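As a warm-up, study this chain.
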Amino acid sequence: MGQAVRAIIIDGDRLLVMHRNKHGSQYYTLVGGRVQDDESLEQALVREVKEETDLDVTAARLVFTEEHAEPYNSQHIYLCEVGPHGNPAITEASEEGQMNRIGINLHTPAWVYIKALSKIPFRTPQLQQALIDAFKRGFPKQRIRL
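Now compare it with the structure written out below.
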């Protein structure tokens, strides 16, 4: 069963998302990706955030789990804190950096205003709604299955 991790990274009134242009289909999702066989969820989270944004996760708390079809059966979504940073950027050596270089399945990290979250084409509507609700009411203290 495949697993993936996703990061909720907030900077003031903005949320860090990944804009995807996957074979002409454009949408937004949270930063993150597949958990490799030899790593824990937390190790995968730190690695994926670093590869996709060049940011360092300093703290993380699991807040949501979202079930999907293959290859990402379970998406584990963490509320993250990151170290001091500049603009997020894909690292050149990452899988995403390689895809960007050859011009397929493009990945672009971007900050979006939290108040505009409901207006962007988000990959999964149930996660989008859970995020909107959490920004209004606070993030759950214990993990919620979406």
